[in-house]
Amino acid sequence: MTKQPIGVMGAGWVGLVTAASFADLGHSVVVRDVDPARIEELESGALSIYEPGLDELIRRNRSRLRFTLDAAEVFAATGVVFVCVGTPPTYSGDADLSAVWRLVTELPAGVDDTILVMKSTVPVGTGEAVRAKLDARGLENIVYASNPEFLAEGTALTDFLNPSRIVVGSFAGAGAADVRALYDTLNAPVLETDVPTAEMIKYASNAFLATKISFINEIANVCEDTHADVTVVAEGMGLDPRIGPSFLRAGVGYGGSCFPKDVAALKQVAGNSGYHFQLLNAAIEVNELQKRRLLSKLKWHLGPLRDRTVTLLGVAFKPNTNDIRQAASLVIAARLLAEGARVRAWDPVALQAAGPVLGPEVELCEDLLGSLRGADAAVVVTEWDELSALDLDEARAVMRRPLLIDGRNLFDPDTVRASGFVYEGIGRPSADVDSVSSALAVPERLRFSARAAAQRLRGAEVAGEPNPAGA
Ligand code: UGA
Prior knowledge:
six-stranded parallel sheet, alpha/beta, Rossmann fold, 471 residues, binds uridine-5'-diphosphate-glucuronic acid, 2 domains, eight-stranded mixed sheet, 20 helices
């Protein structure tokens, strides 16, 4: 049976994963983007987006994929068009919907019998606003549906083909069966809802996961003061099926193009209707502070950071992607530079993207061991597999000071300490400052007292306590 042809507006990460996956399911797909360089690149078989397996999936299904700059070509070829345009945050934290409005305005006048399926993450109420604009243009026959994506970067293709759920929002059921039918071959629960509910499911899911991360990060911070180990606490919590083990990894906070943007947008959606979403405010603030806590840990051991060389291990917001949007590494690098440190950054795939954002003061290192040569501290920011495979003895040998701050709890503390490192994780029993002083060879007068450091880590001002380091 011939499969329904599909259109995709927007050749970004969501658009290309959607297009390639539907092509793999046997659909012919026309992908449109407004950027001539991107279309040219895709036509030539190149791909600047890093998503494991996507390159290969596009190549394998090349005969079923067409790339174009022309919106009319999409609507001429198919009756189902997925909207996968970007909805980045504006200064106010609201989502920028200009790409959506451009699309609605550009819809060719004669288009009829088409289902417009919103995959981009849009604020609750957007579907109703699009519906109103379509109607105002006399395009009542265009059906609108919401079908949010739940793809995570790095595992997007698996997520597409093995979804946890498929959500189809429609106005009075119009088009729902057609959208649902596209996923018939996938084994997943389908939830049919109205449009605002589908939109809210997406926001609420991301906001809940982000809050879960901020929650475990706060537990981690308390663990540090109480000598508990957050990794084991999380394991113990996660065994309760009502809590579940996922998204309980404490670390440097969440980043990426989705959580920060969607949490801020949901906060604005609530605020715009007069509701003060306190829990989200806290989740956002905890996340911001979490990135900065690493600096306190460095100072705890090294004293003032001026002229210290600090290597950031990983700059991508998470492994298996070259995406650096809202990555913790950007904040940590900026703070280190502001403190006068010399900053190096290593990452297996994200250096090219990171270079212009980090700026010329950050030395980009392709070689992992080379990035550690002569460094006063190494900071794990992204839990890349390459780091787990690092030879700790070799690393110890090339560093000036053996200090490893593990922002992702990637390493086993005992193993790292056995290699002669001073190890600090997140929410794990910390090294005793006095016992490590000789290992780091930082003069006593330049280090914070343990009490002052602990108070600083809690964000408290240390009243009346002299800070010999002057930092
Ligand atoms: C997220 C969601 O997981 C997807 O379901 C959703 O579809 C997507 O946003 C989206 O809205 O498009 P993504 O941003 O790709 O996906 O990445 P995640 O794997 O969710 O990680 C987000 C951030 O949280 C990363 O910085 C990661 O390091 C951090 N994280 C994650 C933690 O700090 N701890 C955890 O336990 C899990």
